[in-house]
Amino acid sequence: MSENNDYTSDTESSEDEIEPKLKYVRLSNDLQSILLKSSATCIAVHPKFICLGSHWGVIHVLDHQGNSIQGKELKAHTVSVNQISIDSNGEFIATCSDDGRVFIHSLFTKDNLHLNLGRLVKTIALDPSYYKLGSNKRFITGDDKLTLYERTFLGSLRPTVLCESEGLVRSLCWGENFLAWSSNIGVRVYDMNARCSLGLIKWEEHPGVSIDKFRCNLRWADTRTLLIAWVDTVRVCVIRKRSNIELANRDLPEYLVDPVSTFQTEFYLSGIAPLDHQLVLLGVPKELDDHQKSLRPQLYIVDYRDNEYTDSCTDNLSLRGYEEYTVNDYHLDVLLEENRFFIVAPKDVVIASPYDLDDRIQWFIQHSKFDEALEILMQNDSRNINRHTIQSVGVDYLDYLLSRGMYDAAGRLGLKIFGKNPNLWEDQIYKFASVHQLRSVSPYIPRTLDSKLNPHIYEMILYEYLKLDSKGFLSLVKEWNPGLYNIAAVINAVLEHLLNCETDKNVYLEALAILYSYEKKYDRSLSMYLKLKHKDVFTLIQKHNLYGVIQDMLIDLMDLDHKKTIELLLEKNTISSDKIVEKLRQNELHLYRYLDEYDKKNPKGKYHKELVKLYAIFARNKLLPFLKKSDFYPIQEALDICQKEKYYPEMVYLLGRIGDTKEALELIINELKDMQHAISFCQEHDDRDLWNDLIDHCVDKPDFVTFLLQSIGTYVDPTVLILKIKKGMEIPGLKNSLVKMLNQYNLQVSVQEGCKKILVLDYFNLQKKLVKAHQKGISVCDELVCGACHRKLTEKDPTRVSSMAMFNCKHAFHVHCLPDNTTVCGICYALEPK
């Protein structure tokens, strides 16, 4: 271990190192030379300074770095200093020694006190308010009794024995209103206001261990909590106020001491202090080493509850000369406000303090736990952290990951630490380039134009992908904004690479096509897409509105994807349909596909002549429906095409349209041999001569005759067919056919007669209704006016009464207002011109 202020401790841990709670600094400077000449016997600390008692009876006043404060070295005793006490304001120091002297020294005035008691004085305590003007300047000493000294009105000291002790008073600690001291049998607490003892906390004797051989360590954690560490037992006591019921029943002190936790340790105790809700214990192992020397002292941080405790952290302390010291040679003091712990050995002083945020971060970095370090930085205000930043720790973490080949993790870390800050990224990106791992960081670097890096960096990344990962290169070309890099430089690199490349050429050509489109060299881009037969050519056309330049590429585009090509052509109409048809005439299949879709959107009959031929070649199933719905094709040409291809159903339809029903019927009978179709055809045209032709064609074919007998009874007079049947011809199923025919004919006659009866009955009903309506009277009211002169028809003055005429339509007129010999209403019927 070095002799300077650098200090390390060994922390007990499992395989996974546990974050330490405390950091250690050896106090050096002037203290180092002091301890070379003498030994430390006790210590008292104040936020302003440190007082160290030595074996030669000198009290050294030091700052917190171990420097002597000039003029403050006090040669108060001739033998070892037993205890030092400092008032709460840091103005007075009290010391005692086995030489029987008590020394109280003022650091800023000459109000000093030298008192020779003539007996061993093991302990002393200043009133925390000793510095206050008007106070009684109280202090307490301990030997075989506890004595309070206070200054009287006239300035003399008045001793008062507070309590006799069972043996020597070995430890003494004055809180705000309460005093604790130890004797040979236990610890007492005294109420300084009530001037009464609150009771004895008796200490248990252990076999073979005498408690008077061990120093009792007392510490007030606050004004009401007392910590006791003696031999190997720890007690935490709380001073609480008695209830009114307890005080009323018996004559008891107002306060009592309540031990809330007691536990035994596996080591001897040299000191105790609080740390938040935990305890800090300075301990010495009970065992000795192989040479019967003492083992290293240890500093424990423990959690306690009731009668149990658990170690939170244990540090082995490398104090100078520890092999020669026992438990009583060590001391522990604390600055409660700062949680700074002063560990004193005869030849060494070490300060322990909790890790601050910077210390924790540094420890995590040293142990390669960078995630934890970053978490601290991200969760805490940067004003509380002085030595580290997210970026500085992030850079260390980045170097760590790169050194271990964890490139993808390093890339993700970059995104987390540097975000979209171009300056931070550019400083670190070359580290990836040096190990040829730009591909690992490429998904995480800034990609937006407002936070873009130097274009050279993006080109470096693309070049690495170009050489090592063709698909990754294509992906980046698609994803990245072309404004991030020099497009021409990348195109040149791709062209150069293609000269020496034997694999994945199509991938590079596709990337090249995209790059040309970024440069707005769309003709090159389109030609490359077509060469590759890549369907992104349609996206390019739509995105950049390139409809005007695709006229000469129609055949290639149709070969690539005729559906998308036709969709483009019909969507924008930038190229006239006549030009498209002219270009596609060299490929009738593509022409058919285009015109078929064109006709669906433009059903005005244009190109129907071409469609007849194209349907006849490529879509026979569409031909007949098309012929039926359209009137915009030359029928004779359509008939010639159907005759050439021998499309008989289409020929039948076309012949029917031009009136050549006889030839159409012959095709149905002779070529299609479909009697049902023939009957439907005759029924559709409803021509008696056509029916006779059908009968004449079928009368010499027994099977046809049978079918006719069963089917035409409802359309023509069946006797026509029967009379034309040759005598002696055998007709299969003749009887059943005749029965069916007669039934059909009778049914037809019955239906006709039924209809006739309905008509006659309906006629008489309507006639009766009409007569009844004419027989009804017509109401004439006072408000009725003449339809011609619009004067009232009814008059109360008899001289003005005239005849009126009322029609069944309810219109009425004065007779003299009507034309002569009229029999109809002039309103409902216009008069016939003469």
UniProtKB/TrEMBL annotation:
Residue ranges occupied by any RING-type domain in the UniProt entry: 786-828
The entry's keywords: Lysosome, Metal-binding, Protein transport, Transport, Zinc, Zinc-finger
Pfam families, alphabetized: Beta-prop_Vps41, TPR_Vps41
One GO cellular component, as annotated: late endosome
CHCR repeat coordinates: 565-707
PROSITE patterns documented for this protein: CHCR (PS50236), ZF_RING_2 (PS50089)
GO terms of molecular function: zinc ion binding
Subcellular location: Lysosome
Gene3D superfamilies noted in UniProt: Tetratricopeptide repeat domain (1.25.40.10), YVTN repeat-like/Quinoprotein amine dehydrogenase (2.130.10.10)
Main subcellular localisation: other
BP term (GO), one: endosomal vesicle fusion
Residue ranges of coiled coil: none
Name of this chain's protein: RING-type domain-containing protein
